[in-house]
Amino acid sequence: MTQIDAVLASRFAATALGHVTREYPNHIMHVLTGPQDARTPRDMHPIFFGSFDWHSCVHGWWTLFTLYRQHPDMAEAAQIRALADDLFTAEKLAGEAAYLARPEARGFERPYGWAWLLMLSAELERHDTPEGRGWAEILRPLAQIFAERFKAFLPLADYPVRVGTHYNTAFALRLTLDYAEAHDADLAAACRAAALRWHAEDRDCQAWEPSQDEFLSPALMEVVLMRRVLPGAEFRGWFDAFLPRLTEGQPATLLAPARVSDRTDGKIAHLDGLNLSRGWCWREIVAALPDADPRRTVGRKAAAVHLDAALPHVTGDYMGEHWLASFALLALLAS
Known about the structure:
The protein has 15 helices and no strands. The chain is an all-alpha fold and 335 residues long.
């Protein structure tokens, strides 16, 4: 795993601190059953009310806690610690849980927000400091709620969702396995079973992407999920069949960055995230291939051009910067 240098860590941390408590503008995913349900983001979500939407606030905190663990002496560390102490309390966690207990919230943030909350919990469980252990303990009941929701949902999910947006199931399971493999063996088994049921027989991917507002590659997300669930030799055999013409430069669309025509448009700005997440995927794929495999050269080049296209734009406009640093971290920490 690569360490983020101090300058970049400070830049990303300052950006995340600027939005995790910014309540407005806010895009809420909320079912109203009557006028009593018309509530503000902070009222509904006492911890994760910022960053334009709930899931972006969750992974904004993942960014902050990841950087805090890697750079405990950075200038922003004291502000992160003070803000986390203020927000990650038992009382505010209970407010988050109460929202999820509403019958109308059964599908709230499924599966993207579920996976990011578990990723956040997995990160906090790695912290070996008194404050980190305290934050982890506070968040643990919320992680358990989403773990149980995944275990109830996956047996019902007969089909994967292959879009390049929040509903992509491969991305959700890939993140969830970071938590499940360390903390919930039953959830890990459920994720592996679903991945194999959905994707074990997939062959010769045509990679019809990108679409106009994708921030995930449906093709490459499937690859990194299968890399996680299959042993090395089995994964390489599956990968040979899934993308059989990589050494010929095909599918070419997976090797070239998407063009972002307007970064002030939230949907079009998703394409910067696509470039970052493809960079992440290619770096994970390269790490799974033998040293002599010619596809390592293809993958390294693809990762580099995608990251070169996107990293300069992680900050600059709020429609991107309220979430892009998380995807930059995924890519830069990949191995």
